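mind reviewing this fold:
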Amino acid sequence: MTPRQLRKMIKEGREISKANLQGLDLRGLDLAGGIFLDSDFSGANLSGAQVNGSMFVDCRLTGAVLEQADADQCTFHRGDASGMRMDSARLDQAAFHDVRLSEARFDGAVAGMLSFVDCDASGASFGTLTSEMMVFYDTRLERADFSGSVLEKTTFYQADLRSAVFSRCHFSRTMFVESDLSGQVFRDQKFDLCQFVDANLSGCDFEGATLNQCNFKGARVEGGSLRRVVAPQCVFVETKLDGVGLNGGNFFQSVWADARLNGADLSGANFAQCVFHRAQCTGAVFSAAQLSHADLSYADLRDADFRDATLMRTNVHRAMLEGTRFSDRGGLLLKDAPMFDAEEFSARRPKHRDPSSSSTTSPTPGRSE
């Protein structure tokens, strides 16, 4: 099939099925809206071509070149696109589903919404890619390279990112949900409003990073480093940070409820107005830390070191303080009076029965209801 015949069939609205288009020179052609079924584009050159709104189903695109192509609203369903080159392509609202994309290149591509579902993108390159929203769901990303990319509103769901490359990336509203980032190095990088919910961050190095209003709920960070980070108003609820270095960091107004910080080094860090309700901090080092107006109610602070820490209205209501070391207890609130009154009131209140657990009984005959 010649390029001219191909273009004519597309303009007539005909499906292109089982076509052999290997190695064809299709540069700059208008192929918009094409429906390609079980066709072979391997080695074809579609640089600068218009394939926007097209569908590629069960197609072979190995080694195909779509550099600077317009692939907006393009759909790739199943098929093999290993080694495909889409550098500087337009990919707004493009979707890849169940496509093999190993060693494919998307460097410099520009996209609004872009999704990869159930794909194999091992070794793929997304360097300097810019997108407004991108989703990687159930997609293999071993050795994937995102260097220099703007990952705006990008979602990685249950992704293995241990060997992915994120150097010089900008992360904004990026979500790493239940993903494995263990061993990654994010030194001095910037994260704005990012989510690491239930992520594996074991051994991750965030030293010197900026983590504005990020959420680490339920994440594992053992063996990692948060030294010298700027992390105001972050959420570390139920985060596992045993033995982690947080010294010198700025965690102003962050929440650490139910976090595990046993043996962690928090020395010299800013925890002003932070909440540590029920946090496990046995043997933790808070020496020279800023803890003014911090709330450590119900926390386990046994054998923790608070020497030279700044304590000003620091609440340790019902905290466990056996073996805890202080230079001066003058700034501590050992009992929060309003909270104590609330606890006393709650203890006196009758417990409410669960209506669903009570059995239904018939009224006693002769008894008024």
Notes: Confidence is low (pLDDT under 50) at residues 359-369. The CA atoms of residues 11 and 34 lie 8 Å apart. The helical segments are 3-11, 337-348. The radius of gyration is 29 Å.
